[in-house]
Write a structure and sequence with these properties.
By secondary structure, the chain is mostly helical. It has one domain. The chain contains 5 helices and no strands. Helix 1 runs antiparallel to helix 2 and helix 1 packs across helix 3. The longest helix has 25 residues. The protein is globular, with a radius of gyration of 16 Å.
Length: 124
């Protein structure tokens, strides 16, 4: 199975995977401090985020099993870095480079340029 890059914007899709994992992490954390009724609410939503992320990755990131977790971790790593290290531009650049290398290995596509921007520019 190969990816259709006309339909799939890899960088945005990677961000979505990261956001689903980010949301899941916050839901699990909230469940730890909630009363029993709210725990069920948070845990059910966390499971839904996990399942949605898995389905999305299976459809949009048809990678080898050995790279599956790397794609998920790379998405989360980039998302967390952009959330927490916004003032450290050198660190952001370093993490972007790491994530781009992982995704290039997983997808076979050079992601050193922003695919979102290139695609957006062409849609005038």
């Amino acid at each position: 199975m190969s990816m259709d890059y006309d339909k799939l914007n890899v960088t945005d899709s990677l961000a979505l995977v990261g956001e689903l994992e980010h949301t899941r992490r916050h839901l699990l954390r909230s469940a730890q401090y909630a009363d029993e009724e709210d725990q069920v609410f948070y845990l059910v939503l966390a499971k839904q985020c996990q399942e949605a992320r898995r389905k999305y990755m299976e459809k949009n990131f048809p990678v080898d099993t050995k790279l599956w977790c790397l794609v998920k971790c790379a998405a989360t790593l980039r998302q967390l870095t952009y959330e927490t290290a916004t003032k450290d531009l050198e660190f952001l650049k370093e993490i972007d480079s790491i994530v781009d290398e992982i995704m290039e290995k997983a997808t076979g596509k050079d992601l050193s340029e922003c695919e979102s921007c290139a695609s957006d520019r062409k849609e005038k």
